[in-house]
Amino acid sequence: MRKEDEVVARLIAWFDSRLGLSHPLLRPVPEYSVNPFYWLGALTVVAFVIQGVTGVLMMLYYVPSPTQAFPTTQYIFQQVYYGRFLESVHLYTAYAMIMLAFMHMMRGYFVSVHKKPREMMWIVGMVMGFVTLGFGFTGYLLPWTVVSKSATDVGIGMIDALPAQISWLLSFLIVGAGGDATELLRFYDLHVVVLPAVLLVLLTIKMYMLECHGISEPVSGAVSQEKRRLIPIFPDISLYLLELAAVFGSAMLLISVIFPLNLPPQYSPQLAAQFTPQPDWYFLWIYQVLKISIFEGPGLSVALSLVTILFILLFLLPFIDRNEKRRLIDRPIFVTLGVIFVAELIVLAYWGLITPGQIIPFEQAALVIGGTALVIALVSFGTYWVLFSRIKRQTSGPTQAPAKLVTLFSFGALATGGAFAIGNTMNTTVNIIVQGLDWWKALELVSSIIMLAFVIFGSALLIYSIELPNGSLSRRIRFLEKMIHESK
Amino acid sequence: MNQNDLLTTIILIILQLVSTNYLWSLDATNSVSQARFAIFLAIDLLSFAMIAYIYRKIEWREPTYRIWLLLGSFGLVLLLLSSLIFT
Predict the structure, then answer these.
(1) Of A102, A150, A151, A353, whose Cβ has the fewest other Cβ atoms within 10 Å?
(2) Do B56 and A85 touch (CB under 8 A)?
């Protein structure tokens, strides 16, 4: 070795021994995880980093005061080098961050990563999801346009409908002593200091837990030894992540070119009076739920309570879905519920987009929301029916008789009756809470509950009647248990 | 490294050099230039992703999937063509 090379090698060795550069910091990952779906969370972090860089550049010019916010944003658009491009990339990467976080969550749901021992990872991830939505909510106000200010005011207006303690805490955090100046300053502080700090802390905690538990196994469980080969994070996986990040970045740039951002007019109370406020797309589903006629006025607190219950259920999912089975075929109910959840979000968001400011009659809402759930439940039932039948045919020969038409009709009738009974029970309950109890409402509630009881009784009878002649359900369950036992 | 991968890498590096050089010549406040800036930055990033992919596959002693390289090349051609729209 030449003398110069020796000096360089010694220098590198000195730094390596002091800084621990070659010490493996993160545990290696199996080869089967070299798949973009395993790295949706990492891509969300990439989006967060892009947000940080573009956000810091905009902070050089932006002034968070009601008189200066819009002019400085306009200045960034018109005068700053690549200013409009910067704003567009910041906005679309924010959208991508929310979408990636949602996809990461739903993938986790469908492949059961929330199950033992990763329950706490799920809960921390859910909090991170809320923080991401918080970024969207607080950042939306900052340009101080008529669109952003009007929509944020509607959101803030809902705080009053919450229970007193929560309402007080939220008002203190985001509105302050009142007035536009305080509101904007607090939103800015939350957006650029508090939320990034909270997200970084949560990310560290989640990374630590990922280090402890490692990457989850594929749901199929059948992975070859070759695919289980461990690959170091540095340089191999880092390089792979760089590839994903580069493709993601170029997609963001392309979207920014195709749909360049235009700045709406500055906020003024006069202009806002002529404008129908509408939130950004990721809050449209809540917006649509709140526009249902029964949730108007005093019903608002009922709607917010329902949304809160939904979020609590999502948080507590690892303790609700405790079955250790992870494969999609073994979880028909949770898979169906997950698909219904995604479909309802899409339907409500799109419906909210095309009906700005319109109050939705309850019957129409029940038809659309219930109809979507019913269609998906029927499709899911049919799919699982076919899958189970195929499994059965593979094991017990050609003894499977075709599904009886009467069974199919009975199932359809029960599902329709069930949807109607649940909808009517909910409607009557909300009416009683909002308008008070009278004899007619009490009768309606009792009749809905009786109908629901009939549907439950009918379902049990139907399952029993299918089971009775050939014991197919118990055979299927036994077959699945055998399959899982063998795969273990 | 096979000859096709070598040739692809050389073309991508040349493309990166040309597009990076072009980025510095743009007028930074003009909206048309800003669109071109975004397109050529996207070309840079996509080329980088393809080069990193080829390098990773060589390091892992695995063949490169032609479909990914074709898709990437198609994306690059599309980006180059779209840059002509912004004149």
Answers:
(1) A353
(2) no
Quick one: pLDDT band at residue A400, thresholds 50, 70, 90?
very low
Q: Is the reported ipTM for this assembly greater than 0.85?
A: yes
**Closest residue on chain B to A85 (Cα):** B34
**pLDDT 10s digits, A426-476:** 777 777 777 777 888 888 888 888 888 888 888 777 776 665 555 556 666
| Average pLDDT rounded to a whole number, residues B43-69 | 93
Q: C-alpha distances in angstroms, A31 versus A28, A144, A193, A195, B17?
A: 9, 48, 37, 34, 33
The sign of the torsion formed by the CA atoms of B74, B77, B79, B82 equals: negative
| Backbone phi and psi for residue A30, each to the nearest 5 degrees, phi listed first | -70, 155
Where residue A357 falls among pLDDT bands split at 50, 70, 90?
confident
Digit-coded pLDDT (tens) for A258-308: 898 999 999 999 998 888 888 999 999 999 999 998 888 778 888 888 898
Amino acid identity of residue A428, one-letter, is T
Top pLDDT among A484 and A333 is at A333
The separation between CA B4 and the C-alpha centre of its own chain, rounded to angstroms, equals: 16
Question: Could you tell me where the beta strands, DSSP code E, fall in A7-144?
Answer: 29-30
Q: Are B34 and A84 within 8 A, CB to CB?
A: yes
In terms of CA atoms, which chain B residue is nearest residue A230? B60
Residue B39 with chain A: CB contacts under 8 Å: 253-254, 257
| Across A147-170, average pLDDT | 83
Q: Which of B37, B49, B75 sits opposite A82 (nearest CB)?
A: B37
Cα–Cα distances (Å) from B15 to A110, A455, A474, B73, B75, in that order, read 41, 67, 64, 11, 13
Q: Is the pLDDT of residue A59 over 90?
A: yes
Is the separation of the CB atoms in A133 and A105 below 8 Å? no
Selection from A220, A211, A199 nearest residue A101 by Cα: A199
The pair of three-digit structure tokens given for residue B14, joined into one six-digit string: 């040349």
Smallest Cβ distance to A246: which of B28, B34, B49? B49
Min Cα–Cα distance to chain A from B49, Å: 4
If you search the block for the tokens 């073994």, which residue do you land on? A330
- Interface check A234 vs B, CB under 8 A: no
Note the helical H segments in A330-438: 332-354, 362-396, 405-435
Contact present, A98 and A140 (Cβ < 8 Å): no
Best of B48, B61, B73 to disrupt the A interface (most A CBs within 10 Å) is B48
- Tell me the backbone φ, ψ of residue A29, rounded to 5 degrees: -115, 150
Question: ∠A111-A116-A117 over CA atoms, to 5°?
Answer: 110
Phi, psi dihedral angles at A145 (to 5 degrees): -95, 170
Got the DSSP string for A203-245? HHHHHHHHHHH-SPPPTT----TGGG-EE-IIIIIHHHHHHHH
- For residues A336 and A333, give the distance between their C-alpha atoms in angstroms, rounded to a whole number: 5
| Of residues A197, A238, A187, the one with CA closest to residue A26 | A238
Token look-up 């573009």 returns A54
Q: Which residue has the tokens 């567009």?
A: A88
Residue A65 makes CB contacts below 8 A (sequence gap 6+) with A181, A184, A185
